[in-house]
Amino acid sequence: MDNSLRELYQEVILDHSRHPRHFGVLDNATHKAEGYNPLCGDRVTVMLVLGEDSRVADIKFQGKGCAISQASASLMTDMLAGRTLDEAQKLMDGFVHLVKGDDAGELSADDREHLEAMSGLSEFPMRVKCATLAWHTFHNAVEEGAVT
Amino acid sequence: MTAQGKITASFDAAAARADFPILSRLVHGKKLVYLDSGASAQKPRQVLDAMSEFAGTDYANVHRGVHYLSGAATDAYEAARRTVQKFLGAAREDEIIFTKGGTEAINLVSYSFLAPKIQPGDEILLSVMEHHSNIVPWHFLRERQGAVLKWVDVRDDGSLDLEALDAAINSRTKLVAITHMSNVLGTVTPLKDIVARAHAKGVPVLADGCQGAVHELVDVQALDIDFYALTGHKLYGPTGIGALYARRAHLKAMRPFNGGGEMIREVTRDIVTYADAPARFEAGTPPIIETVGLAAALDYLSGFDRAAVKAHEQDLYAYARSKIGELGWARVIGDAPGKGAILSFEAEGMHAHDLATILDREGVAVRAGHHCAQVLMERFGVGSTTRASFGLYNSRADVDVFIAGLRKAREILG
């Protein structure tokens, strides 16, 4: 068996894709954005409540796509809840570096451990965009997705 | 029967396979199994050599110089036009226009032929199985001129309902634009009947032959069709070159497409007059080397007994179809009678991209996604499918590797 495949599709990823956390609609969302990858048709909608202290008070997502895109969205929502936007940005930068196989020095040891399951992606450059879709969508939600 | 597949009386697939240098390379340490010919076919050394030799001996710009090489290049370029003419069974060589590919050919018909005729409310009839290249040029006319796109459905097996198509043609219909062979379902449409039905109501027909020209014998005169578009790179030729067959009676009235050199008769400060077809539609320096490559590809393909090539591909499809059926967890989309060698499917609990990644590690190249046919994906209620598309160089052994890869994917993702 190809080890890099086992690494990519490890139990944590498959579990997140089959049983996504924070999956659903957030009725009181303050920010919302839809992400779409026209090349493969993956879709993800990220909804969040941004508190006055600039913290992600609540976050949910909905989506359809490959195991990587769905697991990544699930992991992301798990990790972003409770963080400030600055912390979220740092986490996102670290995540992008990690999946591309670059130095992800921004990540704390704890975050690094949480995201370890995604590090197998660095062997699959064609699939990096699947993993980053949810994160870019979160970014767009915060930047331009204020619900009015 | 050999491991390489059935050798028919007149087509030796294993020998043909040896013509394609890339097929002997490894991918991820595994022997390449190329099942993505529907996206783009690999090129035989006959095509690669023809391009290289032309570029190394006879190359210059066409239709311009008086020098020797310009003449030689022009001869090769125009000879390629006659090769396409013969390949499509066109009556005249000036009915063949070289384009960048199938997409440009259809855009040319949209802009030069149909747009000037469109009044708000006029209809363009399409099937739901069209590739985006045979949808978006017509959406342009909807957006810009108020044309109405009407859609002919396919049956659940992917076959076209000819009666429904016939019933959808009315006095406002200005064009029927339909694929010759679906790039997702493999469905081959009954072009001759479609043309007969449309012409009975005075409506011209365009066929997107990007897949059809590869797998079916085309005779535009026998079909009595108005426009037929093809692309070189799916025909074992190079990228950047395709062709449009257009009936001469239409060409005379069609306005120019791109403006530039080559397509004019006279240019002054105040006026411009245009060359006749095909030059009128071939502005600028064409991809000359690629055109020579296209001709070499058509010669290569025509060198085989095409019916025997088709029989070989049909054998591969039938074998793959039966093997994938045995898995019990793959839902095949497109089972129309007489369909071509394209196998699209959805696998229970596994996304097409995850499947394609795992197959890739086995050296198997397949396409995953919506295949530029989102209208069709919606029709079948799927976001994406995995597609194995076969070429003349594939073998039953390729199918076996593919099926083994699917089993492995199930093991990993299941």
What would you say this structure looks like, in words?
The complex is a heterodimer of chains A (148) and B (414). Chain A is α+β, with helices and mostly antiparallel strands and 148 residues long. Chain A has a single domain, classed as Alpha-Beta Complex (Sufe protein. Chain: A), CATH 3.90.1010. Helices cover 45% and strands 17% of the residues of chain A. Chain A is built from six helices and three strands, in the order ααβββαααα. Chain A has a three-stranded antiparallel β-sheet with strand order 1-2-3, with helices on one face. The longest helix of chain A has 17 residues. Chain A is globular. Chain B has 414 residues and is an alpha/beta fold. Chain B has two domains: 128 residues, Aspartate Aminotransferase, domain 1; 254 residues, Aspartate Aminotransferase, domain 2 (3-Layer(aba) Sandwich). Chain B is built from 15 helices and 17 strands. In chain B, the strands form five sheets. Chain B has a seven-stranded mixed β-sheet, sandwiched between helices. A four-stranded antiparallel β-sheet of chain B has the order 13-14-17-16, with helices on one face. Chain B has a two-stranded antiparallel sheet with strand order 1-2. The longest helix of chain B has 22 residues. The model of chain B has no long low-confidence stretch (mean pLDDT 95). Classes of the chains: A alpha+beta (148), B alpha/beta (414).
Brief descriptors of the model:
heterodimer, A: 148 residues, alpha+beta, 3-stranded antiparallel sheet, B: alpha/beta, Aspartate Aminotransferase, domain 2, 4-stranded antiparallel sheet, 15 helices
Task: Count interface residues per chain for the largest interface.
Answer: A-B, 21 and 18 residues
Low-confidence stretches of chain B: none
Helical segment count of chain A: 6
CATH superfamily of the largest domain in chain B: Type I PLP-dependent aspartate aminotransferase-like (Major domain)
Q: How many domains is the backbone of chain B divided into?
A: 2
Q: Helix share of residues of chain A?
A: 40-55%
| SSE topology string of chain A | HHEEEHHHH
Measured by DSSP, the beta-strand proportion of chain A falls in 15-25%
- Kindly report the spatial arrangement of strands forming the biggest sheet of chain A: 1-2-3
Low-confidence segments of chain A, given as residue ranges, are none
Helix content of chain B: 25-40%
Described by the principal axes of the CA atoms, the overall outline of chain A is globular
